[in-house]
Amino acid sequence: MDENQIKAELQALLKEQSLDYNKIVVLSNELAKQDPNSVRFTVDADLISRLGKELVARQETALSELVKNSYDADAREVTLRFIDSLEKGGTLEIEDNGVGMTKEQLINGFMRISSGDKVAHPISRIYKRKKAGQKGIGRFAVQRLGERLEIITKSDFSEEAYTVSFDWDQYQRDRELTEITNTINTCERTESGTKLIIKDLRDKWNEVAIQRMYRYLLGILQPDLIGEDAFDVTETTDRDDSFDINVSMLANGMEKKIKIDIPKLTQFSLAFIEGEVDNNGWALYRVQSERLNMDLEGDLSMDPDREDVSFTQIKNVKIKAYYFLNDYLPKNQKTAFQRYLRDNGGLRLYRNGFRVLPYAEPGNDWLSLDESQKRNSILPQHNNQNFYGIVEISSDSGDFEETSSREGLMENETFIQLQNFAYRTLVTAVIAIAQVRNVKIKPGQKKDEDGNWEAISLRVKNIAFSLDELDKAIDDDEDMTAAAKDASKEKINKLRKDIYELKKLHKEERKRDREEKVMLRVLSSVGLTVEQFVHEIKYYLNSIDSDMKYLIGRLSQDAKALERLDILEKNFTNFRSYVSYMDSAVANNVNRELKPVELRDVVNPFVESLSDDANKSGITIETPEYIGYNLYTRPMHPSEWTSILFNFYTNSKKAIKRARRAKGLIHIECGKVGTILYLEFSDNGDGISKENEERIFDEFFTTSTPKSIGDQQPMLEVAGSGLGLSIVKDIVDSYRGTVKVVNPHGDFATCIRVEVPALNEKEILNL
């Protein structure tokens, strides 16, 4: 169609009394393409699918995006209701009581990709919440969850309620996005708020999967510290701006409210500790303990040597934490509480109501509490597992900047002052508690005649007071003589040299340790790989031996002999392919060099080499799915991926065999979410029971060890040693990654997800 034809059709359409807006849009786009001097970006409708799947690869992430939208809309509660979700094709309703949307907001906000509304209006209208979402694309998380969506919304400014429906199958490749229309209608709704009805769910959601999702959502929200059990975030508080998440599932006409069991820790705490830096930088702390009949408060200065120095970089910061000691835990529950505090203890950091990772994750000692305990300069217990609480900051708390990888905050002066305030609040409180308990506080402290530890004045130092800051403090101290300043500076310079030498030695020692650990993992990987290799050799050698005997006995029957000879040749071809792959894997073990690994480069050869073996077992390894490009990991040892994939594969073979599947299926999906790469390995075996989901990564835990040698079928199985997944976890942990069992997609029974840090774009360009 040429330009004149398009103009003529447009003119005819515009003259009609009832306009066909969709056809007008199509013709307008065609007319714009006729412009000889200008080009314009066009948008393929498949972009919606890409935004929905590539941006939010996990169901938990998708749901968290939708929950954040309810939070941003000033909702006090949001309810998630899973309806007939035990099989694919169910329905999920997400309903909140927020401010809702007007027709204009629905058109210009929700229907506009990457809308800048949250950037222009970062604070919510009613409760003045700092809005969690800003990119304007989190709404497409619904496409990840289901095939169709219906929105019902009513603004608190409007009498009318509106509904609009989406069928994501319409958003197909090679179709203009603007050509797809969705009709807005009025509907019945009396209260303000928004309801999302996600239909034809893409995955199954059983109670275990829903609980896992619920726990994840509760973990990203800041717990409200008001109430008898402050950390039970499932309890509704009396605050006007509180935000609650309710979850239920409806199956066979029966609705069940989903609950998460959180240990009632607070009633067994020894003390409750609070700290606050006000709007002017002045800080105070408070310790309360009914058991010790204690209620104490005091000021904290930024300078431990002076009492009248305010914090210069932080303000509007709050700390609330419970303090636990083993002696005060109930004996019949002590082990369970200790385990929970070991995994969840410490002070988590929340900003604008949402958690900032990785602070207070297991192994993260961001306040140097564990390090301080090891130094033994302060004797009362103050490890991370002795505390359970939060640090709360907001947009106006200071110059907190996210790192380029978006993992945590940059360690600038503001962050250091926050660390100092939090550490000194806790330790000052612990010392005060120890004095009331008549517990020894520091080495060398003496007892008086009555058997009480003598009173002492203990200076709680800053944990990150740099030499440069100390140097400047000496220069600014007008009371110090010139000779004293010179002597102090000489000591500081000597200390700088000593620290420099110590850093060099420490760096070299760490390098040696890393090399040794890498080689230990490599040797472990080799052992498991060789075990599987020997098993496969047995299979092929027995097959070849059988074929040889047959040929010798039936050599006179040429037709049969040639048929078996052809089978023999195929077996040898498969065997050579398998040996070649294993030879390459073992050869890589010799190389100690760590380098970025593109996931395609390890997954594709693995699938190619193992497909014949899988087919012999009645298993199909589906074509791997890659979401995105340049899936490069941070530097890793390439052969370790061989160990990871082989462990997953052998476990899947056993699970599929136990399930007696007529057709076994294995699927591998790789992709990138933010700064994290993931690999998901799924199978349709017999699944993993809820109680074993965490245990499968423990050393020596196995579900496949035969009761006796006679129970094992040597031609078909490799007995489980219980070390495979433990080694996988060790490998992944060493690269600051995670490995876990997640909710399986579609008809699969098990999905194990590996997450490792991704190489950033600048580093990829330098490869």
Task: Give a structural overview.
This protein has 767 residues and is an alpha+beta fold. The chain has helices at 3-15, 21-32, 47-54, 59-72, 103-110, 117-120, 141-145, 207-220, 334-344, 369-375, 413-437, 467-476, 482-553, 558-590, 599-616, 638-659, 724-734, 761-765, and strands spanning 77-83, 91-96, 146-154, 161-167, 184-187, 193-201, 244-251, 254-257, 271-277, 283-289, 294-300, 317-323, 346-351, 354-356, 387-393, 619-621, 625-627, 664-673, 676-683, 738-742, 750-757. Strands 5-4-3-6-2-1-7-8 form an eight-stranded mixed β-sheet. Strands 11-10-9-12-15-13-14 form a seven-stranded mixed β-sheet, covered by helices on one side. Strands 16, 17, 18, 19, 20 and 21 form a six-stranded mixed β-sheet that branches. The radius of gyration is 32 Å and the shape is globular. The chain contains 18 helices and 21 strands. The longest helix has 72 residues, at 482-553. Helix 13 (482-553) packs antiparallel against helix 17 (724-734). Mean pLDDT is 80; it is low at 225-238 and 706-721. It starts with a helix and ends with a helix. It is 38% helix and 18% strand.
